[in-house]
Every structure is written in structure tokens, then in C-alpha cells.
Amino acid sequence: MSKLTFARAINAGLRKSLENDPKVVLMGEDIGALGGVFRVTDGLQKDFGKHRVVDTPLAESAIIGTAVGLAYRGYRPVCEIQFDGFIYPAFDQIVSQVAKMHYRTQGRVKMPITIRVPFGGGIGSPEHHSESPEAYFTHTSGLRVISVSNPQDAYTMIQQAIASDDPVLYFEPKRRYHDKGEVDETADLSAALSMEKARVVTPGSDVTLVAYGPLVKTANDAAVAAADEGVSVEVIDLRSLAPIDFQAVEASVRKTGRLVITHEAAQSGGLGAEIAASITERCFNYLESAPVRITGFDIPYPYSKLEMHHLPDLDRILDGVDRALGRGNSLSGLEG
Fold it and tell me: Which of 40, 186, 198, 311 has the fewest CB atoms within 10 Å around its CB?
């Protein structure tokens, strides 16, 4: 076992994929000599060459468009979108070409493209550098969307994404890049938990708390705090946002009878709404109260000095747990 930061775990996973498959090619802005703005690809161009770790122009639509052509020719391109808010120029290529090519050609053309997206807030960035656009892509059939929350999953799931014949959006929480954790770099990838499966991080019996990406750590902290008050919270890390492992969530809710969902993205049209509706349909007779969503507000990400008021924190999540237990009052209509 190695103790790696989140960023170094992704780097190690990329390195392993480059070593194992000569068709893997990395592409992105400043990912080569600089190693990326977050240094996630540090050292890879030096070791694998400029033909496999490619510094691209500042043109996201060109990056994804080129990746489509490479995938046509049998390559497995891994594209880095430098910041979440920069993905929108490539939106047309992702939803109109990448997501549909396999279906449109009746399976004759595969699109094994991995798109890495640093996302979320918490690092004090300026406008367009902190966003949560995941719901746009979970709505698009033909895309797999995953979000990692810890170094081990970061290492394993980047390799699973690259090996997949389906296009994968790989959302990595930028405020967790420096978090450290144990990583088993020798484990057999085929024995690892499928990237489509959710994981129970903290077992519990009173309330199911669903999170993904940057908020899994916060959700765990909330479970510890709730335990001090005698409340047992089961924390589920979704890991896969499309498809969602509803069976795992359903099994937990059938046990606890209560559901709280948290994510940084805005509440309206967010993943929390889809999870709440689907679990209500599946578990209506087991629910002791209506599902509760703790999310970002329905506003653009605020400037750095205010963003921590926007992001769900320990207190807001605990308030959601109280409401699910019937112990708290619903907040204003602006509350996520």
C-alpha cells in the first residue's frame, strides 16, 4: 500500500494505463511540460513522449473533436478539461457526437473516450473555475458519468474508465486533490468494484445519506457528528452518476426508512431530484418521511469569499438529517 494524494493517485492510474496500452493518448491544455494546472499529469510527458501526452491549443471543442477522430482509428484518448467551467465549448461534441456515435452506427463504431473534469468549489477560484455541471451529462443517454471521492477510487476508476469501450466523464473534486489516502497499486483491476457500483462508506440504521465526489468526506463527518447524538447514519458514495446504482440506495432506504441526498450543484434539476423521485417510487411503503435534499443554491457559484456559504457543509447536512427524522423545521425556499 502507498499513501498518495488524490492527484498523485490519478497520476498513477494514468501512468498504469499508458504502460498497459499503447493506444492510450492523453490530451489537454498544459498537461505536458507543466503537468497540468493541478499537476495531475506531472512527469507523464517526460516518460511517455509528446506523441502520447499532448499539449493542445486552448480549444475544448477541438480537443474533444480530435478525440472523436482518434477513437475512430482505434485509440483510447483521455482528455483533460482544465476547469469545469471550460467544458461548455465542447458540449456539442460531447452530446451530439461522443454520446451518440455508438448507437447511431448500430455498434460498429465505439467511442472509448475518457473526459477528465476537475469540478466543484472550495478552492477560492474566480468565475468559471468552480462549477458542478454533472447533471447536464447524466441527462444525456450514451454517456457514463462517474465521480470519485478518495485516492483508491481515483486510481482504480480512471483505469476502468479508460478501459471501457463507452465514453466516460470522470469528475474529480478539485478541493480534494491534496487529500491523502492508502492506495493499493498492486491490486488486480479485474477484482475491483465495478465503476457502476455505489459503496456503503459508513454503515448505519436510522438515515441513509447519499453523496458523491467532494461531499463524501463531509457526509462522513456528519455521520460521526450524528453518532454523538445517538443517530446512526448510513453514508453511501454513489461513485457512478450515470447509471446510478439504485439497488444499493434502495437496499439502504428499505433498512433506514429515511433518505437525505447532498451535492454541490444547484437543487433544481439536480441529481438529488432524480434520486429522490426514483427512491420514492421504489420504496414508498418503506419511507418514514419525504426525502430531503441538501444542495447548492439555485444561483451561479458565488465569488471565492462567499462560496463556503453556498456549498453544503456539516451543519446544513446535519439539519437535513434532523428534518428527515422529523426533528427540524424546513428552511426557506432558497435552501438546498
Answer: 186
φ, ψ dihedrals at 207, nearest 5°? -145, 135
Question: How is the beta sheet containing 199-202 ordered, strand by strand?
Answer: 199-202, 233-237, 207-211, 259-266, 292-296
**Could you tell me how far CA 126 lies from the centroid of its own chain?**
21
Which is nearest to 217 in space by CA: 240, 237, 245? Answer: 237
Torsion of CA 255, 286, 149, 313, to 10 degrees: -110
Q: How many helices (H) and strands (E) does the chain have?
A: 12, 14
Cα 320 from Cα 260, distance rounded (Å): 7
> Residue 237's beta-bridge partner residues?
199, 211
* Residue among 265, 148, 168 at smallest CA distance from 213: 148
* Residues 201/237, Cβ–Cβ less than 8 Å: yes
| Catalytic annotation, residues | 129
What's the pLDDT tens digit per position in 254-309? 999 999 999 999 999 999 999 999 999 999 999 999 999 999 999 988 888 888 89
144 burial level (CB within 10 Å; 0-12, 13-18, 19+):
buried
Contact between residue 160 and residue 13 where contact means Cβ atoms under 8 Å apart:
no
**Closest to 10 in 3D by CA, of 178, 207, 132, 215:** 178
Cis bond before residue 112 (omega within 30° of 0): no
Identity of the amino acid at 317: I
What are 219-257's pLDDT values in tens digits?
A: 999 999 999 999 999 999 999 999 999 999 999 999 999
